[in-house]
Design goal:
60 residues; mainly alpha; 32% helix
Length: 60
């Protein structure tokens, strides 16, 4: 005869700690959040300067 299968998750005792493998760290989430905010930020297009040169010299 075997023991009955538990209906719910096992209680957290003094045994092994639950694995955090696959969970991103808070620092990684903060870095990704800053990068996404930079991606979504609106940028102002640069104003072309009047340097007296033609278009051919500017495209080099």
């Amino acid at each position: 005869m075997s023991a009955p299968t538990p209906a719910g998750p096992a209680e957290q005792g003094h045994g092994l700690q639950p694995s955090v493998f696959g969970r991103p760290s808070p620092a990684l989430i903060a870095r990704a959040d800053r990068g996404y905010a930079r991606f979504l930020a609106t940028t102002v297009p640069a104003v072309p300067s009047e340097g007296g040169q033609g278009d051919a010299a500017r495209q080099r």
